[in-house]
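My current task is to audit a protein record that another person submitted. Alongside the sequence sits a line of tokens, each denoting a local backbone shape. Where you disagree with what is written, explain briefly why. This is what I was given:
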Amino acid sequence: MDRMNLRLGLVLLSLLAAAGAHAALPVYGYRVVRELPHDTQAYTEGLFYLDGRFYESTGTVGASDIREVDPATGRVLRRRALPPPDYGEGIAAWKNRLYELTWQSGHGYIYDLKTFAPLGSFTYPGEGWALTCDGSRLYMSDGSADIRVLDPVTLDETARIHVTAEGAPVERLNELEWVKGELYANVWLTSRIARIDPASGKVTAWIDLGGLGPKPGETADPANDVLNGIAYDAEHDRLFVTGKRWPTIYQIELTGPSLQR
């Protein structure tokens, strides 16, 4: 290759790299595989799947609780109420423990996973929104574009992940789930889930769940009864989503992707 062709080749590679850096993020759609019953009184704040059961936390002062639920029937098998003035938020399991956040009280609770017996509490600055676990670390959202990384033994914050999409911070990160090495996060008051690379904090793709769930007017408080709840069954590679006071938990498969415009 002569120098001119080499120079042109380098320019072309540079242009292609620049175009790739600004490429639109892929957007996945969904296909409903199965519909499961969900308690329409449950103001869902946290959700995960473990050993054939859903574990759910609900919010609002005076109606907050943690519960173990039979997926097939929606029947609550076990629950523990969270008394006022606490407002329940996200939950996550690690080993034999279940951790629960509260919204604005500045503290969370630790329970025995099998019995819901209280084991202790912990504190944190700011608000608590959601929790998930990758098996060795807890991840906590607080309504901002940052996800805190917590040591599950000490509950100390060990790191922060600043979440961005194409360079812009993604605010209002809510319910979290660890799925195949990625963090999935509801973006509060939207129909989208962000797929986040935990190493870089970059959103690698969106999941658009528009059209899923009850129609406006079919819930008690449409402005607040929004998408919020992600659970993943790692053993069978199944993804579940729901919303606050929705009558249904949906098992979905992702479709696509298309490119965001």
In short: The chain has a mean pLDDT of 91. The longest helix spans residues 3-21. Residues 22 and 156 are 36 Å apart (CA to CA). The first strand starts at residue 26 and ends at 37.
